[in-house]
Amino acid sequence: MLDDVIAMLEQQPDLSNIRKVSTGDYASVYKGTFESEQGKKKQLIRVIHDIRNYHAIKREKDLLTYLNQYPEFSRFNEIRKVGFYYLQLFDYAGSRNLTKYVKKKGSLSSKKTKKLLASILASLKKVHKLTFVHGAICPDNIVMGKPPVLINWSHAIPALSSFDSEVITGDLRYCPPERLNGTLDEKSDIYSLGCTLYFALTGKHIYLLKKSEENARYLWAHAHHTIRKLNRLPIFWRYLIIWMTQKQPEKRPNLKELSIWIKDETVPDWVRKESIIVESSFPENPLSQLADEHYLYPIFKQALYYEATGDLENAFNLYENCAFRGYSRAENNLGLMYENGLPVRKSYAMAANMYEQAYRKGNPFAAYNLARLFEKGFGMPVNLGQALKLYEFSALRGHLKAQYALGLMYQKGLGTEQNLDQARYWFYLAAHYGHEPSKLVLKKGL
């Protein structure tokens, strides 16, 4: 795929001198030269490989466009769609991130780390004012320019409990523990930044986690481990990072307190007096143990396992536990159990209620399931207009079955006027990502 991306970029008439910077599952980054009537300039080109979730891509575009008014951010110039890729073009701010910088030059001095902290705080002040959080602060997402720049806003979401905050993404070695309960807010960025500062100062992970670890071990460490080898840190940094990486979000500093710390290096007395008992062990089954401690994400994963192995009673009980606490993924799965009548008595009313609650938290799976009920009239009058609206909500968020269903409604003129161009668009998108019924429709022709 890498060769295909480079070939695609080289075919752009205004881009040249393409060089790879980094690759990832969701997006890859390249540097190149952009040519226009005003002359040539270096650009960082971010190529999004997976374009199913148009809603997330547009949300990021709108955020980047707004942030262009501030000098703390790498200037976002353009987004263009080329085939099944989106290209984001930024002014070139450097290609060496914090990870690469430390690997090549060693850990940062205290002075440089303070400058790094000040730069990131300046960025977060603008973003948090919008009630957004970055959601993925880590060494890979900081470009060591002059000054350092926080990049990769694809994980940035509003600071509220929602389906987006339930789906744990990014480098889990820097994941705040509250994400285990499906929450993410401004204090979550502070935690990840604290872990990142430890890396900047030492060249090591705060809990000595490696990329080869299992995800469950990452999550356990964030919930239970204490900072490893505190004596690596100068005393004033030691207290700051202890403060920033508190397990309880409300105990972490806010941006104003961090700005004050840069000037006078003061922390609350309780931070100085806190007794740190080193904890670095792992249980045999971290995810199961976290579920026993009532964290929502592990409970939900355990419920999925029970359902997959046929233990529907236990799965139902665990889904109900999570749904009672507002976890949208469990609400959706509980709705499916009520709809199918297993292991409970069938109730379309209960199913619709569960789907509705999850949909209002932005869950695309629930939106799709609720749309089916409206389209078929299961437990309610047929409402094709509402079904179309819900299918579109889900399709824009990357749900392949919803994209197919939306294509069918446009093809047949259900709930809307017939529009074969729209139908083809949704069929092609779903088919590109492997949806077999969409492939069959296209093969037969519209």
Provide a concise account of the structure shown.
With 446 residues, the protein is α+β, with helices and mostly antiparallel strands. It has helices spanning 2-10, 54-67, 98-105, 110-129, 163-166, 186-202, 215-224, 235-244, 255-264, 269-273, 286-292, 296-308, 312-324, 328-340, 348-359, 364-376, 384-395, 400-412, 420-432, 436-444; strands spanning 15-22, 27-36, 39-48, 76-82, 85-91, 132-133, 142-143, 149-150, 157-158.
Question: Could you please describe the fold and organization of this structure?
Answer:
By secondary structure, the chain is α+β, with helices and mostly antiparallel strands. Among the domains are: 90 residues, Phosphorylase Kinase, domain 1 (2-Layer Sandwich), CATH 3.30.200; 176 residues, Orthogonal Bundle (Transferase(Phosphotransferase), domain 1). The protein is 50% helix and 11% strand. The chain is built from 20 helices and nine strands. The strands form three sheets. The protein has a five-stranded antiparallel sheet with strand order 1-2-3-5-4, with helices on both faces. The protein has a two-stranded antiparallel sheet with strand order 6-9. Strands 7-8 form a two-stranded antiparallel ribbon. A hairpin with a 4-residue loop joins strand 1 and strand 2. Helix 17 crosses helix 18 and helix 18 packs antiparallel against helix 19. The two termini are 30 Å apart. The mean pLDDT is 95.
Please identify which CATH superfamily of the domain at 98-273 we are dealing with. Transferase(Phosphotransferase) domain 1
| Low-pLDDT segments | none
| Shape summary | globular
Briefly note the CATH topology name of the domain at 98-273: Transferase(Phosphotransferase), domain 1
Could you report the average pLDDT, rounded to the nearest whole number? 95
Instruction: Report the end-to-end length measured between terminal Cα atoms.
Output: 30 Å
| Separate helix tally | 20
Q: Helix-strand pattern, N to C?
A: HEEEHEEHHEEEEHHHHHHHHHHHHHHHH
The value of Rg in angstroms is: 24 Å
Q: What class, by secondary structure content? A: alpha+beta
Q: How is the largest sheet built, in terms of strand order? A: 1-2-3-5-4
Instruction: Determine the fraction of residues in helical runs and give it as a percent range.
Output: 40-55%
The fraction of residues assigned to DSSP E strands is 5-15%
What is the CATH top level name of the domain at 98-273? Answer: Mainly Alpha
Largest sheet report: 5 strands, antiparallel
Gross CATH architecture of the domain at 98-273: Orthogonal Bundle
Please report the total strand number as a whole number.
Answer: 9
